Amino acid sequence: MTSVVFRGFSDTEQSSSDTTVASEPNLWETNVTLFRGRRAAATALAVSAVLFGGVAAQAAPSGASTRLADSLRQAVDAQNFKDVIDLTPPEPNGQSRHAAVAEKYDPTTMPVAKRVFGPMATPQPIHQTPNMDAAVIELDDAGRPTAMADVLLSPQYPHGVTVPLNQRALATDQVRYRWWDDDEWDANGGKGTRDVLPGRENAALDFSSPYPASVLKLMVGFGIMRLSDQHVIDLDSVYDYRPVTINPTCGEATSEPIRQYFDEMITMSRNESTCALIKLLHDKNYIDTLNATFRQLGMSTLMITGTDPNNGGHWIGSNMSSVDTAKLLLIVNGGPGTLWTNADGSRVTRDVLSASARQLYLKTLGNQGHNEMLSTTNWCGRDYPAPGIPQVTPQRWINPDDGTMDVGGLYYGQDVRPCNAAAEVTMAHKTG
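The structure assignment produced for this chain is given below.
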């Protein structure tokens, strides 16, 4: 899934103030981005095209939407996705990639001390076109949406297919989203069998929605900000995380200010902090309310289901389409006026979150430690990966003596100071 929001882009010139939001979940990697700078709009367009593919238009789109859709769909079709390396290729005997009981996303049988970083099998060229969901919202200089587009890539749509969009609602009812399953993707030609939303049987497009990985933490963060705005919780109060049962992904009992859990979840993508906040949402009986809020706001594919109230683990029941992820970030970005109008006539504005909540969210996203996907400044100076968005890397993580980064114990051995000196944008994003 790739969700991008950028500001100030015209045929002949770009705005001097730009904002971009992007998210990408495919092969369990995800990135969500907001950046500002003189070249942000053009950079957003280029990076989305190279990494995630095109976007789409509605049946009778505006000129801006048509240009956006055409450019990005053509770009995704030009990429060599046949060269993508699959880190977990299917077993030659057709054996399931995950056991009947333990999930690969929630390894309940894995010892707490064991942390494996790397492929579980020998990497191979991917055996079919990967799934990708890419959405772009274009904003004017004030941060108001002026156009949107979305594209799907899959074995069924190997050249990318544009999604019919309602530009007023920033939505579509023309995709039959299916829950992600590795084995179905491997053995069933990329086709899923379980519907994410009811009533889409006659939709024009059928698509297995990639597992959102740690981008789901954006939904958790939204829920925490809502509870804070409603004065149900105090972000500076200490939450005692006391799991009834231990989940290895979640770790042991901890006690931290809620604000600290939120920061660690976003900036370091710390799973233990995420589990604590999900358990807090359960403690406040807010999970169902949060999902209902997403539906009421016109973001029906955003959902957190099946999580364990005893420890905050078991995340596999989470789903996020790129379109709705972009809309969630549009709220956080905080443009004025009506952001979109739902089919029932209800209007959604930035006031879904308070100004202080939006400010905190944006600041925390801006302190991201894992700058290694849309931007690759953590690997500054290396031939691979290729340079991405030329962002300013947050000083918070940089060793002043040698310029290397340590993000919650994950060490990046490159001196990032040369890339900071050449940076062109600031960037707020979430990797997964």
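Interim note for the steering committee: The two ends are 11 Å apart (CA to CA). The longest helix spans residues 63-77.
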